[in-house]
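Hello Y.,

Per our agreement to keep a running log of every chain we model this quarter, I'm adding this entry. I've kept the format consistent with earlier entries: sequence first, then predicted structure.
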Amino acid sequence: MAGDEILVRLTTGAGRTRLTVPTSTTLQELKQRIEGQTGVPWTQQQLCFEGNRPVPNNHGSKILELGIKQGTMLFLANSKNAEIKSTFTNTQNLLAKPADFYQQSGGSLSGGTGAPGGATSSKAPLSAQPTPSDVMSSASSASQMPLAGNSASSSSKKPAESTGILVNGKPMEIAKKNDPTHVSFEKFLQQRRFETASLPGMQTYKPVKIERGKQNKLPPPVTLGHQKFRHVDYLEYMNASAIQNFVGYWQSRDMMEQRGGYLYGYYREDKHVEKGVRAVMEAIYEPVQPQSDFVQFSKIPDAGSDLADKIANRLGLEKIGWIYTGLPRDELLNAQEVLEIAHMQQRYKSKKHYSGYELSTFVTCTVRPDVENGGQPDTKVFMCSDQCSAMLRDGCLDENNLDPKNMKIKPPPEPGIIMPAVLQSGKDAGNFDPDWFIIRVNDGQPTARKKKSIFSQSLFPFANRPGKPRPSRQDFRNYMQQAAPGGPSWAKFADFHALIWLAQEFDIDTVFTICDSVRERKDVLPGIMEMVGAL
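Predicted structure for the entry above:
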């Protein structure tokens, strides 16, 4: 960033964004920039500093004179109708690493993305209120999402050049069909004039108990159908070294020890899908988990990641999904995996959407060896449909079903209980294929590195790995010698797992101060550097 420019962070009702403006910018010019980003007229904007302290409306004054400087967080108080507009570039996938990549790196991967450029969190644009022009605008078809790993700017009619990396089990050079298989949820709502009452998540699938001597209402049948919209359109691996570390450890155990981890990041608008939402992965945290052939995070208490949640939140990040490894299989997901994904989406759901519709933007990333391509690790990203989530919510899916190829309705728990019928093509389905509930989400890694990860490296040992002791102070000293040599002080702490470890050694407020320095790209206080040096 040039010396005559500053970065201003903005929080609105739709989420967070960043603005780079010249130091000579006046308050009026800044508000006009904000109007271009959010759609809120500059004459109606009221900006506040942290602590709800209003910014004086001296529109002719320069922002530096008003106390707005590098990294300042501003809040748009009257932002009910705000929306976040993005200028981000789509990208390609990764994971084309040899099996000994992790071992050669001594247990950690240094493939950092360079000094970050002040990335901050941006919530998904889920609370943006529709304008009348949105409601009345004609429905144009959404552009097809590119294959994960293909350049977002390349046409779906033109095959991309092969990179030797697998994306969803296929070489990158294979082109997608022109017609989109899904549209964004916001586009879908616009097409139906924002009516949500008939959507699957608003339906009730609860069993009914028949009472004698009364007129009973039977539960309505469930008509299976593929969901045409997605709540998240793309998962982007902004911090490539984190996922390489995760996959590298799995490869070092001959892919036989299955692991899972939470994905931390933020949401932003996806300009390559009309009104689309992009999830951006910045870090992976592996909670304490039992060793099993099938990773089940729904059985793990959410409190196991409390400390990671606090550090992530201070950095402007949140849980956006989870990742797990597995052995090769014929189907995309089996019935048990679909149920697990539905459980996770039920755990991380929200009613914050402006329509009042309850939804989840929690994505699932799987990593498996592709036997047809030399066992290279292959990522696929999924969500389950709202219909599946609602049926699980109301207790009509059989969670004890052991058949991997079929979903089943739960048997009546007692006489007189009537379960909803499941219809497939107008006929009672009995058992049915899990594919009815599966939604594919595209994924990839940025190619244009204009935007960099908030973390400059992923060198510190991951915690909670089987057979490995908790990282020691000597591990931390070794890390500090390797991390960002000759760089600014904040860059040495720009490692998610190092920050979590420090939070266990010091009080949380001290580590929050370090997090602020990492987030705002400013030097760590000398007193804290002395405390850390004493370790």
